What we know:
The protein is mainly beta.
Amino acid sequence: MKKLVFLFISMVIMCLTGCVHIHMTHLSDEDLEWVKSIYVHSPINFVSDSDNLNDVKYVKIFIHNSKDRFFFSSALNTNYEANAGYYFDIESDRGELDGFFLIMRKVKSDILWFKADCGARFTAYNGDEYERMIPLLPRDFSINHRLFDNCVVIDSTNSAYSSHWKYNPNNRIEKFVISKEHGLIYYKFEDGEEFFRQDLLPDSIQMKNQP
């Protein structure tokens, strides 16, 4: 009996001190397809409608998808929300921009959520820049009559420019698109210049824009 009491008290203490995850979520193999197609440090060429070339590099991928309920942390958080994502850099004549994409399974939610940023544009739930997680609702996106499914489009309808970024036209991304299969495939600056992932364009357009 004493052992049971001791075990019960120990479990209560562990829960109160944040050493046991009471609520946990898990990313499925299908969820992880949003990040597993990404290759770190492999430059990808993007070409604009003005024939300018940029390089995009994925610099880090992370997957937090543990099934272990026991942990050691000072955060005192008994919820574990599985998440995964990546960071990328855009190198261009305008300067270097960074970007980020993350998916998450939230506790007490049946849908997949995400947040993303590119340059000064950040996802914003209902226009609130401090609530960056928004529902992931995949849709089709067309580039030069080629249709890409399972994309998220980040634009003025679900994101905003961060108030913490000083105004600079070279970091003002008006719109960008993340594909489940390919990662970043498109972005557009506020001045109207559009960039497309070059290897996804028709051969005739790729040849036109060869350096």
